[in-house]
Amino acid sequence: MVNSMKSSPSNPPKNPQIIILKSAICSRLLLIALILLWRTVLHPYDTSSPLNPNCLSSNFITHHQHHNQSILLPRLGSAIEDSVVWDSVYFVRIAECGYEYEQSYAFLPLLPICISVLSRTVFAPLVPLIGFRAVLALAGYVINNVAFVLAAIYLYRLSVIILKDHETALRASILFCFNPASIFYSSIYSESLYSLFSLGGLYHLIAGSNNIAVLWFALSGCARANGVLNAGYFCFQTMHQVYHGLFLKKYASLAVKAVITGALRCTCTFLPFIAFQAYGYYNICNGHAPEEMRPWCKYKIPLLYNYIQSHYWKVGFLRYFQLKQLPNFLLASPILSLAICCILHYVRSQPEMFFSLGFRAPIGEKRSRDSFSSLDTVSGPNIAPSKENLSTKTQEYHNLRQRRQTIEGDGYPTLHEEHDLFQKPECLHAFVIPCTLHLGFMAATAFLVMHVQVATRFLSASPPLYWYASYKAVSPGKRWGYMFWAYSTAYILLGSLLFSNFYPFT
Fold first, then answer.
1. pLDDT tens digit string along 202-255?
2. 28: CB partners within 8 A, 6+ apart
3. Spacing of C-alpha 377 from chain mean position
4. In angstroms, rounded to a whole number, what is the distance separating the alpha carbons of residues 334 and 339?
5. pLDDT interval class at 360 (50, 70, 90)
6. Which residues make Cβ contacts (< 8 Å) with residue 301, sequence separation at least 6?
7. Which of 20, 318, 320, 362 is the most exposed place for a label (fewest CB within 10 A)?
8. Is 238 within 8 Å of 256 (Cβ atoms)?
């Protein structure tokens, strides 16, 4: 599939977003078909999924009330409920009853809120047919699969701007559509929403829509705790704006303005996660005598999320380094190896630009032909440095922004200024630096701190993985491309078989 997509670098494939849309939809239909197949062929390891006690709070409509109603299609409803396994149980339960138990606060509220709203509005007419809990599960499946399709499109738009090559961007996006963690993007997990808002936020940031980027990154932090790491992109942007204002423009006011603006944007990115921790503290700790409080309530910084991860799931530095966990390290080894190769490839290709964090661009020196990102070239097959490689929509946006900045005179550099890292089109791919640092930090965290087997889905939304795999897919010999597709295929088959039947997976 990958090798069949050949096009001139200056002429993008016809309707690339339609190709990605079809690929994303086909991949989701394939996953659903595999889940149905394995659920039919195999007997689930755990058959307790239909068990669902009444909500503890009377403020919520309980499952028992809906269960007493006559359901027209009980077998269909039971089949949907039986598919709710692993962490999906928590998300569905929270959407139905709210946060009842301490450990449930490990699951952030964006997905449960979306499920609850959709099931009580658009999908409400289905309750008499299949039951309320089945409707909740169905809403979760719809939300995540739609979010995944949109995330794939945003990855393509982001990749076109950064790589400046439609063909490489298209390959990367299709690889994402069939990524090894695909089972989680079609289940009731938060990966799809996180990927959508993380990739979308990064796209809007690089495109210049900073306020929209703040909103999207904040929503990514409502979906998964690691969404707060997206504040690092604003730090990278602020760092270069401060350098530009202080050392190039010689205006301290520009640097101060950049620092204040960057700090506010980072704060907004952190705010949803902090607010949710405060919500947990209010519900669990507030109003209790000191001797009745949970241990974490007495901490100087009472961070509920860290306590839950450590107390209930034994997450901590090197705590997973046990001989009995060796199979899980082997399960995570492909994605961790891919991440390491990706990081090393970029560092070796452009060490000067990488270690200077983009401040020292190797403009005059000869670049390695196997680099997938540099300041003025993007190599690999059919990759050209010309400005024409940008999509028409992106180029129109930059022209519009140039005219707007000329009129407003906001003090920040324009398209014509040499040192503007973020508005000059041929320099936009320097944002590969924070993307790579982000990937490295998450890979190290997954390996040293977390349950290592979750690394497959934890890293699955990182764009550099797919850019690197896209480049390797057409490298001489093409064996790397075959290896990635074999890896993805094996994990899709294995994941859909094990995960859907409540057997341990990643």
1. 999 999 999 999 999 999 999 999 999 999 999 999 999 998 888 888 888 999
2. 145, 148, 149, 185, 186
3. 27
4. 9
5. low
6. none
7. 318
8. no
> pLDDT tens-digit profile of 58-94?
666 554 455 446 889 999 999 999 899 999 999 999 9
Find all residues with CB under 8 Å of 318, minimum gap 6, and list them: 448, 449
What is the signed CA dihedral for 394, 397, 398, 399, rounded to 10 degrees? 120
Distance (Å, whole) CA 334 – CA 487: 8
**41 vs 194: CA distance, rounded Å:** 32
Output the pTM of the full model. 0.85
Give the SS3 label for residue 55: coil
The amino acid that residue 339 corresponds to is A
Q: Give every CB contact of residue 61 below 8 A, 6+ residues apart in sequence.
A: 55, 96, 132
Q: By the 8 A CB rule, do 251 and 413 touch?
A: no
d(CA 366, CA 289): 68
Task: Output the CA–CA distances (angstroms, integers) from residue 464 to 98, 102, 240, in the order listed.
Answer: 36, 36, 21
**Structure tokens, 27:** 């991949």
